Amino acid sequence: MHDLVIRDALLFDGLGAAPVRGDLGVYQGRISALGKIKDSARETINADGLALMPGIIDNHTHYDAQLTWDPHATPSPALGVTTAIIGNCGFTIAPCRPADRELILKNLTQVEGMSLEVLQAGTRWDFESIPEFFSMLERGGVALNIACYVGHSSVRTYVMGADAPKRAATGAEIAQMKDIVLEGMRAGAVGFATSTSPNHNGHAGIPMPSRLADEQELRALVGCLREAGRGVFMLTKGAQSKMEFLEELAADSGRPVVVAALLHNNSSPRTVFEELEKISAANRRGRRMLGAISCCPLTMDFTLHSPYTFEGLAAWKPALSLKGKSYERMLGDKGFRDAVRAEISGPPVATRLFNADWEKVYIENVRLPAHRQWQQQTVADMALATGADPLDALLDLALAEGLDTEFSALLLNSDEQAVGEMLRHPHSLVSLSDAGAHLTLFNDAGFGLHLLGHWAREKKLLKMEQAVQKLTSDSAAVFGIKDRGALKTGFAADLLLFDPARVNRGPKKRIQDLPAGGTRLITPPIGVHGVWVNGVRVANEHGATRPDRLPGRVLRDFDA
Asked: Which of 141, 156, 475, 539 could be 209's S-S partner, Cβ–Cβ 3.0 to 4.6 Å?
């Protein structure tokens, strides 16, 4: 007898085959039968032609801290995600000495898009080492399957303390870091992750520690994957990280290299394709490299209290460490404004988030009734109407409202033809949801539903079975995730039941459910009828999750 049979579903196998109508059985958390099932079951669901696919594998999340207070990794399960990889960009919370906890959390405030108060109130510290962190997650239970990177910034902080974001490491320090990376790999990490992106700053504008690593350090730490005989190297690259060097790392380690974040920038429209072509050339030479791309437009909601949109600018750096009145005085300073204006008006930089596209920056909400006329207008419109420079118009409005004005900026991936070309690229990896991070700025945890609904059904850029494959078996193959990502007998029953005529993600909304009363943005699912992890239903047709169900696994065993 099966534990569950889902009857009369349109079965998408996750491997790219055309869908077939049939049944799927589940027994003890695994797919026990496919086709026409006559056996009885403890529970039967009549899908009546709804689509059934493997659960989505989200290969780029930042749930490391959130999982310590929210083992459900909300909102991902309701959005069809059954496996999440955490620790991307090297932003982990393990290893961590008790004395460095405050430092680690301060590092995460900007990149995670949560206040320090939220992180301090929520993060549970029942661990110090990477193996202890994995064990803590297993003891507490998780709703999803979780795979974890060894994170460079935390490893650096563990070895170098307060010096980690300030200087290059010594040879002795690199040796200590290698020991920690290897310990993490032996404990079951999925690989090693780092960042050299100038957009990645911690508290008060301090660079994330990995940004201070030199090539010698990176070679040594990525070399641990060769020694371990498995694992993926993931890098969020800044302009100084050349693709040729990353290809060398792929060759030396013999391991896959995932390069993020490849996003289309209208100000430098061919740069992302030049990067993808370099990745293709590396693959032709036998190096396994992939470009992590997003299927979503990068839209950020922000206030000037924490303007992530601008914080990667060199000219903004003097403001990063300031608070209160001194910060406001800096925003009003003509010299500061002129420097910012000159930088964003100069030659476009592909890795820069903002390139003076004021017509794509919207005034979402104002605090004062006197400014209501600007609500839902662009900053470009406001500047034209007032005769002001757009930067001055934005900063003056924010300062007049105590920095509470809410803006929304469409930054990257706004050209759908270009994004479509990226999605069809043979060495691109659909990725970059950033679920668990940037919570006050945007929420792309529903990226998979967006791919299915917008790109497959509405735009017809991909067949539905191709979109399913990109969300499932493609990631399983890259990361060596065993027995998941496909509808095959014996594979884990990680499943998503959805209506292909409706599936999508809903409009964003802000909720207040973080520790210490913190707020975040979410997007609800559309057309999702059920999500199962290891055969246990974790979300229903209303998008509701079961708080008493934690059927996920901390994945530690991967294919080489």
From this structure: 156
